[in-house]
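Teaching assistant's notes for section 4

Start the section by putting this record on the projector. Ask students to predict, before seeing the second block, whether peptide chain release factor N(5)-glutamine methyltransferase will look compact or extended. Collect guesses on the board.
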Amino acid sequence: MAELVDRGHHLLAQAGLPTPLNDARLLLADALGCDLHQLDQALLLDRTAEELLTNGVGRRQADDSQSAALDRYQSYLQRRVGREPLQYILGHACFRYLDLRLGPGVFIPRPETETVVQAGIDALTGVDHPLAVDLCSGSGAIGLSLATEVPGARVRAVEVDKEAYRWGALNAAAQEAAIREAGSDYQLLLADATDSAALSDLDAHVDLVISNPPYVPMDAIPSQPEVRDWDPDLALYGGSPDGCLVPCRILDRAMVLLAPGGLLVMEHDASQGAAMVAAAQERGYLDAHTHRDLAGRDRYLTARRPG
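Reveal the predicted structure now:
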């Protein structure tokens, strides 16, 4: 087993991957149908892949074998050498308490967005049956976190891209039990988040509008291939040289959706903190501030509709 990890580690390191050992271990575990703890235990006991499968630790398919599992592993490694995101190859990723299904066509949620979600959760603490709207919902990471972590929350999510909407719907279905357990309600709408017709029945009634809109400046093409070549452009670029066009449209829509005193929480680029605060103030928001992520970079705006 150790030689399989070493082989993958070496191949991915040669390809210039930033975390080759971690990627090789995750890919091998998935190919064998086990988790990392089970893989590490097998490595310590010097078990073979066949032993792992035969002993029922790996999720053996009807005709699965060591050969089939190793073929999967090799295929995974080649895809990763081609800089396909690890999350797409594995088909899922963890975000806060969620295990989200992911694949080509949907934006991969980042750890820094977890701080954005926490700001939204904090804002809803103590609110009875709060109403929240997730604009540009993508995989559903933000809205589904609210629906499963805030008891009694009513969450409405909006996504314009059909492929991203499909992934969001899959994740919503997978979280149905957790949403019911929280006493919450979650609904996903295929629509343009900046369109005044989307959720117009909620205008002036929403406690929280939360969003991770596309905000990358048009001329700031990401250097990382996993982002540049795989994340959907529609989810990345903010529609203007400074990347602020779409976020400003979210500011406009949120001002209408929010009830008096309601809060907007919106992620933005590290370079856009001052611009977003100024844009919010120009539109009449109160208490507009940018906040930093765990890496110390400006990451999200909070602003309140006047009461």
